Structure formats: structure tokens, C-alpha cells
Amino acid sequence: MEIDPLIFRLSIFILSIFVGYYVVWSVTPSLHTPLMSVTNAISSVIIVGAIIAGLSGDSESVFNISSLFGFLAIALAAINIFGGFLVTQRMLAMYKKKKKDK
Amino acid sequence: MISANLSAIFYLVSGVLFILALRGLSSPETSRQGNLFGIIGMIIAISVTFLATGNFSSGFIFVLVFILAGGSMGAFIAYRIPMTAMPELVAGFHSLVGLAAVFVAISAFLNPEAFNLGIPGNIKLGSLIEMSIGAVVGAITFSGSVIAFLKLQGIMSGSPITFRGQHPLNAIILLSILALIYSLCSTQSSNLFWILLAVSFLIGFLLIIPIGGADMPVVISMLNSYSGWAAAGIGFTLENTALIITGALVGSSGAILSYIMCKGMNRSFFNVILGGFGATNNDASQSSKEQRPVKSGNADDAAFLMKNASSVIIVPGYGMAVAQAQHALREMVDTLKKNDIKVSYAIHPVAGRMPGHMNVLLAEANVPYDEVFELEEINNDFANADVAFVIGANDVTNPVAKTDPQSPIYGMPVLDVEKCKSVLFVKRSLSPGYAGIDNDLFYKENTLMLFADAKKMTEDITKNL
């Protein structure tokens, strides 16, 4: 009997939780705020769903009620992606080591 | 147009890059590279989606327009936001992830053909369940984050809002969500889907209003976790590996942060989310207490004490963020260092309004991160230090947590500030902190209270050094 593809996805999901668990415990506490902003940015990969939804309209009518929700989701996720990565970068650029010559 | 298998492999690659992005955060040196991995992963995921749909019609132009519109808004916010507002920003961003998840779920529900999920009114059962879970969690994330945002911004009062029957009501709503999902799956009725969404928005709102301001680190971490689970739910619906991996990563990340924050307050997760902490005023015990004498001083006294010290430990808290005193503080420390005084910073896990809040503010003020220490690393050093300079922190220094089993904060890990030879405590007044209890530290023999605005006091001390 063939295995339902859902089981494969579930395996990926469960294993990723474990990966996340160990990776996040190794994050240094001083970087917990950048951790939150970067997780924020990457969870906006939901934009791939939004893009599929946005492109679901046919060539005559780009906008139907379903694709409209897709476009809105694209804009929201894009705010997060750009905002999240950039603000993380801005924060990380501030973490400096003690200067040797001091 | 690329095949489904190839795009699945690319999604896997971007999932792995996201793992590396988090891995990079294990030290500040590797963190910038990690962020770059994250960006590459995102670019791969988006490009692959375009290639896989192979639809470069007019719709494609609109997709780009919306990405650019949202992206420039995001970039604008990212550059303009002051570092002290980071908790609000993160809460606001969480709400957007939640809402985006809801919108994608709505779109998939209305037009399942586009996602290969069946036809309207006859969506595959598995997909419908996954979709509803994604939508419910997304909606809770959205309304919960909006409340968290309003509380952090001060638009809504930070004090807990409680009413009778709150917990039973929430329990009933949560049960009704399960019932709604069940009947939605059996009837495929779109009305039920809308009701489900409305109820989920409502419960997100109700879940966060009873939680008070200083518990926000837990709330933000929890919502971070929810936004991950919502993304994972949608990932299952869309059969997309990148989303499933990311959702799981973010979900466990937020859960771990919530756990760390709860442990930092020695409270159980349920105790925090059921809320109401600090709302139950123990006025009776407060007012019956006689006024105990405190020693208060001015900037001159503080400068004198510090000038004659050989080591100083700074304990920053949320008050420093409110007063925007981090730059003034660093200037004071620079002057101290010129006098060959050893200075380090001690950060309590729940200092501030989100995990790592104090570290970011100090980094912003150009404080090198190797001078900043966590509670476990530095707690033994207080006994050997000459001066502890407490600025904007309160409950996290209260020795009562170690001595009085009756105290609501008993058992909470605290910084052993009282072991210092002398303690300088910058505070506006003697009012109790978030936990609503008096800080014994105020009345210790070796404590000098500096009643002033944190920023102004630090500036004055620097002048007197």
C-alpha cells in the first residue's frame, strides 16, 4: 500500500520542530530580539501561498474575490519580509565587540 | 515553468537556509551571515513560486506591484523605527503574519482549484482541516498581536483587564471553535467558515486583554510561536515544504522563548496566559506597613560613590527604555572607564518588554556585547563589586524573592544586587513595581535612592564625575 504524502509532510514537520528546538536553544540570549524579528521575516514565506492565490485569476479578470485576498496577503507578507530582514540587519550591525585599543 | 519536483527541492533548500539563518544567531559574529542566508532563502522561495506557476500575465505585474508596495513600506518602517519601540514593532509584524495566513486561507477556501484542493463546496477533507487550523491560529495571532501592540504602545492600558466568568467564556469559545471546524468539514458551508474566522478573531482578543504589561515578553514570544504554527498549517494546505519547515522552526522558537521568559519569572505558562497578575491589588498589606526610612541622595553623592569604586555593575530595566537613557548611560560608563573603573552590565531574562530587549538597547548605545552579561554569568560577581547601579529595574532585584515564601515573586531568579558594597537605585518614586510589592532593597543600609528621571540622573552624574 502506498504511503499518503501527508505522512511525509508530517515527518518533515516533526523533524523541523526538533531542529528548531536545538537550534533555538543555541541562540545566545543577547540576540533574542533579533531572533524574534528574523523568525518574523522567515515566517512570511507564507507569501508563496499568497502569490499562488494572487495569480489564480484568469487572463481576462486579474481580480476576483479570491485573488484579491491573495494580493492583500502579498502586501502584508512583503511588509514583514522587507521590514523583518532589514530591522534584523540594523540590529545586528549594532552588536560590536570591545575595541582592542581601549 | 519548472516541474513540481524541482520546485519542491528548491523549497527544501530555502527551508534549510532558514535553519542556517537561525543557527547564525548563536553568536553575534555569525549572525549577520545568518541573516543573509535567510534573505537568500526567501528570494529562492519567491522566485521558485513564480517559475512554478509559469504565469507571467498581467497578474504577475500586479503581484510585483503589491510586493514592492508592501516591501517599501516595510523597509521604511525598518529604518525609521527607534530601537526602544522594538517590542511594538515585533507585535505589529506578528499581526501581519497572522492576517496574511487568514487571507491565504480565505483565498484557498474560495478558489480551491488554484491550489489543487478540489472544488468549492467539495474541498478535500484533509486540506479543509489544515486550512481551518491555519486560519484559526492566524486569526488568533492577528487579534492577539493587535492587542499586544496597543498595550505596548500605551494606546491601551497595560494593566490587565479582567471580568467575571472570563475563563469559562474563553473555554466555551475554544470548544465552539473545535465544534465549528467539525461541522465545517462535514457541511463545507462557507457561512460556517466566516463564523469560524469571526470567533477566532474574538478569542485572540479575549486571550490577551487579561495579561498585564510586564508579562508582555511571554505574550510576544507566545504570539511569535502562534504565527509559526499558522504558517505551518497553511504549509500543509499548500503542500509546501518551505512553509512547513519554517512554521515548525518559528513555532518551536517562540515556544522556547516563552518558556525562558516564564522561567525568568518563576511562573508557569498557564499562570501567565490566564492573566490578571498585578491586577489583584494587595492594598491591605501595603497600607498597613509603616513607612520605613530610606536614604536618598543626589547626583553628586552617586558620582562620589562611583568615583571611589573599582568595579561597578549596571542593572538596566524597562525604565531605562522608557526614559531613553541608554546613550546617557553609556556616556557615564565611558567616563567611569577613563578613571580605570571596571564596568559590566547585568541583564535579567525578563528585563524589558521582550526577550533580549535590553541587549539591543545597549548595543544601540555602542556598548560592546562582551561587557553585557546574563543573570547566571554575573550573579556571583555582585558580592565582589563596589557599586551596583540599578536603572529602571525593580522587581528583578527584589531580595524578597529569595527570603519571603509569602511573596508573589518568591522563587523568581533575581539579581543579587544587595550583596554589593553599595547600591545606587535610580527611580522616580518609591512606588512598587509590576508585581505590586515593595522592594526590600530600597530600605537596605547600603542602598542610596536617586529619585529622578533615569536619563536626567545619569547625565547629572556624568557631569559630577
Give an account of the 3D structure.
The complex is a heterodimer of chains A (102) and B (465). With 102 residues, chain A is mainly alpha-helical. Chain A has helices at residues 5-25, 32-43, 47-54, 65-94. By secondary structure, chain B is an alpha/beta fold. Chain B contains 18 helices and eight strands. Chain B has helices at residues 4-23, 28-53, 58-80, 86-110, 125-153, 166-187, 190-208, 216-238, 241-264, 269-274, 283-288, 299-307, 318-323, 326-338, 357-364, 375-378, 400-403, 454-464; strands spanning 118-119, 122-123, 311-316, 342-347, 372-374, 387-391, 422-427, 447-451. In chain B, the strands form two sheets. Chain B has a six-stranded parallel β-sheet with strand order 5-4-3-6-7-8. In chain B, strands 1-2 form a two-stranded antiparallel ribbon. Chain B starts with a helix and ends with a helix. The relative contact order of chain B is 0.09. The model of chain B is unreliable at 279-288 (pLDDT under 50). Chains A and B meet through helix 1, helix 2, helix 3 and helix 4 of A and helix 1, helix 2, helix 3, helix 4 and helix 8 of B.
Radius of gyration of chain B: 25 Å
What is the number of E strands of chain A?
A: 0
Quickly give the structural class of chain B: alpha/beta
- General form of chain A: flat
Instruction: Round the mean pLDDT of chain A to the nearest integer and report it.
Output: 88
Order of helices and strands of chain B: HHHHEEHHHHHHHHEHHEHEHEHEEH
Largest sheet of chain A: none
Stretches of chain A where pLDDT is under 50 for at least 5 consecutive residues are none
**What are the secondary-structure elements of chain A, in order, as H or E?**
HHHH
Largest interface: A-B, 85 and 118 residues
How many helices of chain B?
Answer: 18
Question: What is the arithmetic mean of pLDDT of chain B?
Answer: 87
Strand content of chain B: 5-15%
Beta-strand share of residues of chain A: under 5%
Q: What coarse outline of chain B follows from CA principal-axis ratios? A: elongated
| Strand neighbour order, sheet with most strands of chain B | 5-4-3-6-7-8
Oligomer: heterodimer
Work out the helicity level of chain B.
55-70%
How far is the first residue's CA from the last residue's CA of chain B? 69 Å
| SSE-based structural type of chain A | mainly alpha
Largest sheet of chain B: 6 strands, parallel
